[in-house]
Amino acid sequence: MARILVTMLPVNDLGLPTRMLPIARALADRGHDVGVFNPAPAPMSLIAETGLTGLEMPSAPTQAPGWDIGLANSAWDVDEMFAGLYANEEFLREMTAIHLQLLREYAPDMVVDSFNLTACLAARILKTPLVTVNQGNFHPASPGFKWWEKERPAGLPSEVGGLNKVAAEHGAGPFGRCVELMAGDLSLIVGTPETDPVADATVRYVGPIVWQRGNAALPEWVDELGREKPLVWVYAGNPQYDGAGKARNPFDSIVVIRAAIAALKDAPVNVVLTMGHQELPEEIGALPGNFYRAAYLPGMAMAQRCDLMVHHGGHSSVMTGLMAGKPAVMIPTATERESNARRLAALGAGEVVLPVKGSDGEKQIDVPEFSTKVNRVLTDSSYRNAAMHVADSMRRYGGAQAAAEHIERFAAGIAH
User: Fold this and answer.
1) What is the C-alpha to C-alpha distance for residues 248 and 361, in angstroms, rounded to an integer?
2) Under a CB-based contact definition with an 8 Å cutoff, are residues 288 and 25 in contact?
3) Can you give the chain as a three-state secondary structure string?
4) How far apart are the first and last CA of the chain?
5) How far apart are CA 341 and CA 332, in angstroms?
6) Which positions ≥6 away from 329 have C-beta within 8 Å?
7) β-bridge pairing 363-364 and 356-357
8) Please, are residues 43 and 303 in contact by the beta-carbon 8 Å criterion?
9) What does the pLDDT profile of the chain (416 residues) look like in tens digits?
10) Cα 211 from Cα 300, distance rounded (Å)
């Protein structure tokens, strides 16, 4: 049996844990020794729910990320996003050192990662076999986030210079682009060729993956809402970064909550609001009478129960809705999420409302446009029919179990 370290970008959001924990659980159930690294509070709550071992940060980082929020939000592709996420080269250097320490102490036979640049770099430095599990637009053979635009502009910001400096300090590299690290010795794509097209015959599609306990059930109060009115599930994810001055982070999605309240507070619908173990921002105040809030609800069960999902366009949210055959209205809060949202809309399974930056620097939307699209998707059966068609096509992929089988075969190969 193999000793496997599962890593992901360590942010306080459930998108990547939702993708990675079912794989980790499947591998552990097959007898492998599995550790999971994402020490942020919300992911650690989900890791505990799986019964897996959640690893702590080996040493506390002293450097601030130095996020360029605007750049990360508007990035053309992974390289430009990393330029926004790792704007501080010293932070990149320190996080690489932390992941090197993690790998040396845990001593895995392989790393299975999703979108953690410094974990992948540490694996390459230590020559630890690497499996990557990503959505299609994170792979170097993808057309990037802005796939609807035909050509990648020249001269886009990139952190590859800083990456190569840090890599060279450890005898690794150079890399032509940061995104090269998103392709492992084995590359698994979460999704299907329909939802996540990648022009690389070596990738292996595993279909959608969503974490949910086998005995997970919705609380009684959800059933008590009845079926007389449509049920809208609003998933906002991490609404804001609770840092110094309450600065917004690159994955801020408070605009989803604001939009839902403005458009749905007087609508003939029931609204369930969840945020993935996040706190409701104080500025929201009391919720309207037709809103019902929960810190966390099992995703697939909630998707199957609702009539419509409203979310920020995160890949895991898109996959959850499509697996359940439910349409969505999406307010994508970054170009990576816009990429996912446009793919879903192109399949006929939802609508997109693009936020714009207001005079105060906050994202805002056209509330009448959002309200119109919510009503359209709820009343036009073509959206649900399209979502159900995609759900049917997804069933031939094996999800977490297929991913575990690919990883086991890879482990058997490196063992010999």
Assistant:
1) 10
2) no
3) CCEEEEEECCCCCCHHHHHHHHHHHHHHHCCCEEEEECCCHHHHHHHHHHCCEECCCCCCCCCCCCCCHHHHHHCCCHHHHHHHHCCCHHHHHHHHHHHHHHHHHHCCCEEEEECCHHHHHHHHHCCCCEEEEECHHHCCCCCCCCCCCCCCCCCCCCCHHHHHHHHHHCCCCCCCCHHHHHCCCEEEEEECCCCCCCCCCCCEEEECCCCCCCCCCCCHHHHCCCCCCCEEEEECCCCCCCCHHHCCCCCCCHHHHHHHHHHHCCCCCEEEEECCCCCCCHHHCCCCCCEEEECCCCHHHHHHHCCEEEECCCHHHHHHHHHCCCCEEECCCCHHHHHHHHHHHHCCCEEECCCEECCCCCEECCHHHHHHHHHHHHHCHHHHHHHHHHHHHHCCCCHHHHHHHHHHHHHHHHHC
4) 13
5) 7
6) 308, 309, 310, 350, 351, 352, 353, 370, 373, 374, 377
7) antiparallel
8) no
9) 999 999 999 988 888 999 999 999 999 999 999 999 999 998 999 999 899 999 999 998 899 888 888 888 899 999 999 999 998 999 999 999 999 999 999 999 999 999 999 999 999 999 999 999 999 999 999 999 999 998 889 999 999 999 999 999 999 999 999 999 999 999 999 999 999 999 999 999 999 998 877 778 899 999 999 999 999 999 987 776 444 334 456 667 889 999 999 999 999 999 999 988 888 888 889 999 999 999 889 899 999 999 999 999 999 999 999 999 999 999 999 999 999 999 999 999 999 999 988 877 788 899 999 999 999 999 999 999 999 999 999 999 999 999 999 999 999 988 76
10) 8
Token pair 């980082």 in the structure block, residue: 61
The sign one gets for the Cα dihedral 26, 31, 32, 35 is: positive
Q: Cis omega (within 30 of 0) on the bond before 10?
A: no
Tell me which residue has tokens 């790393």: 111
Q: Residue 251: what residue type?
A: F
Instruction: Compute the distance between CA of residue 291 and CA of residue 27 in angstroms, rounded to an integer.
Output: 39
